[in-house]
Amino acid sequence: MSLVNIDRAIRLPAPDVEGLIQGRMIAAIVWRTFEPGEQYALYPGNVSGNLPYDQYYRSHFLPAAQKALAQLDSDKVSIKAWARCEGWQMRDSESLEAVSRLTVWKTEALQQILQQRPFIFVAYLRVYLLPQPLEMPVHPSGNFVSLPKSLNVTDSTPVLSESIFAKRRQKLEKLEPPEHPELEELQSALVHLSTTNPKAKQLDAEIKIFLGWSENSPTAKPDPDLAWISAIAQIGNSSDGNTFEKLVRKSFIKLGFANSNNKPEASLDPESTGGAGGLDFYCETPYQVVGECKATKSETVADGTPAQLIKLGHKHLQEQYNCCIKIIMAAGQLNGHAKKTAIGNHMNVIRPETLQKLVELKAKQPGSIDLMQLKPCLEQQPFGEEADAKVNRYIDEVREKLKVRSHIVQLVKDFLERTKSTSVEFNQLHGAYAFSMSPQPLKYEEMHEILIELSSPLTGFLGRIKGEDLGRDRFYFLRDLPLDD
Q1: Concatenated DSSP letters of 68-129
Q2: Domain co-membership, 259 together with 346
Q3: What is the DSSP string of 395-450?
Q4: The CATH number of the domain where 465 resides is what?
Q5: Is the pLDDT assigned to residue 216 strictly greater than 60?
Q6: Burial of 172 (0-12, 13-18, 19+ CB in 10 A)
Q7: Which pLDDT does position 485 carry in this prediction?
Q8: Which of 201, 309, 291 is closest to 245 using CA atoms?
Q9: Can you tell me the distance from the alpha carbon of 264 to that of 281, in angstroms, rounded to the nearest whole number?
């Protein structure tokens, strides 16, 4: 971290400043060459030229451009960031279309600018946020604006990390085509939704990170379901059987189970529990699960609980009952007769604490629980109370997988920051992994498969540049994979 003194601002169109602050682009159109290392605050002004703003900016950026212009005030201006010039290039008419694809400007707007000058100067700006906006009077004209007082700031708040900025700069310098233009269009469609829909806002943020427009995830709000999830064990170890049954049903829905059955006696609806004579929970998809709940304070679980499951299962599901995975959710120990009945009828006895751990993992790491991988744990011996250990082993295995993946993401990030590179070849990364404090050893092909998984557009923790063969694939960092124990 270094201290920086800023006493002047460079005037740029307000939408351009917004694009730089959002990380949507790393360049500005300037009127002369800039020396690398020149530093200025970013002063947002009106769009110059004869074109209206909706003909100046590309469609996916128009909502942001309109908002930035609407925020301009006739009396004062708000400065939110400063930038350091990292280099510049001259562009002629042959390169304008490629420049447009990598920025927020339309080709037509760039062509109009070029009619007034022999070349377009494109400056590459590394942007840093100010700790708080600087309010100052509007300066009516001039490319540079003197600040009312010097700003003493640090470079500790970059919009983009050094490695991501370098990668983006390389693409713009070499005029490489954007990798995911369709996602840029999707992101623009989410702008209006994201102000009122939390899920759209989260998806918007994830897409920006994947596109390299942003590096840091927004401060993720804890899953609101954690409030009731954290009560599963407590309620299961009480005498409140009705509430426990509702929590178990909500848990199975949270895990991804479903039931289209409208019959209250064989349902998964938390608001319409089975009641007397009905099953405590029944799942149809992705596979059939039927169960009985027994909330207890301290007493043992009698033979009546597994016997009840057998009786009601055959009554309401008939021949389907034999195809079901059978679970008893119980806090107390089973007595001798109950153990024999449970084991003899292939019933898994699972404690409320274990269910809570499973659902908490799902809430904190949404993609971590694969119900098809959980299924063999519930179908195979041992049954009875020892089945609880099977589910706990599955939870431990999932956590170990997450640790490996988090370690690999961090390894890529650290390697790029240390070497000042934009990407790392798989062969190099595999070697670095072998000598790192890794959670577990990985075979060559196994590690590559995990990297492919992490660089999928559906996960977006890493990016991938496909090589001539497996070892030549290159990977770059997009976002962290935090672990929440």
Answers
A1: HHHT--SSEEEEEEEEEEEEEEEE-GGGHHHHHHTSSB-HHHHHHHHHHSSSEEEEEEEEEE
A2: yes
A3: HHHHHHHHHHHHHHHHHHHHHHHHHT-S-EEHHHHHHHHHTS--SS---HHHHHHH
A4: 1.10.10
A5: no
A6: buried
A7: 57
A8: 291
A9: 10
Spell out the residues 6+ positions from residue 397 whose beta carbon is closer than 8 angstroms to its own. none
Domain of residue 96 covers 3-177
User: What is the bridge-based pairing of β-strands 325-330 and 347-350?
Assistant: parallel
Write down the pLDDT at residue 261. Answer: 75
Q: Is the pLDDT of residue 123 over 60?
A: yes
H-helix or E-strand spanning residue 329: strand 325-330
pLDDT of residue 196: 65
Q: Residue 218's pLDDT band (boundaries 50, 70, 90)?
A: very low
For position 314, what pLDDT does the model report? 93
83 residue type, one letter = A
How much is the pLDDT for 61?
86
Query: Comparing C-alpha atoms, which of 430, 428, 426 is closest to residue 469?
Result: 426
Kindly give the residue spans of alpha helices, DSSP state H, lying in 117-180.
Answer: 162-174
Residue 153 backbone dihedrals phi, psi, to 5 degrees: -130, 175
pTM, two decimal places:
0.62
Residues 292, 244, single domain; the answer is yes
Burial class (CB in 10 A: 0-12, 13-18, 19+), 194: middle
Helix (H) or strand (E) holding 27: strand 27-30
303 neighbors 341 (Cβ within 8 angstroms): yes
State the CATH number of the domain containing residue 237: 3.40.91.30
Residue 287 and residue 428 in one domain: no
205 and 167 fall within a common domain = no
Q: b/e per residue, 100-110, with b = 16+ CB within 10 A?
A: bbbbbbbeebb
Q: Which residue has the tokens 């470079």?
A: 155
Residue at 484 is within a domain: no
CA dihedral 208, 213, 215, 217 (to 10 degrees): -30
**Which CA distances in Å does 76 have to 53, 65, 80, 427?**
21, 19, 13, 54
- Show the tokens assigned to 57: 């900016």
C-alpha atoms less than 13 angstroms from C-alpha of 79 in its C-beta half-sphere: 30
Q: How far apart are CA 6 and CA 388, in angstroms?
A: 62
Kindly report, residue by residue over 58-108, the tens digit of the pLDDT: 887 888 888 899 888 888 999 999 999 999 898 888 899 999 988 989 999
Tokens, residue 346: 């292939």
- Percent of the chain exceeding pLDDT 90 equals 47
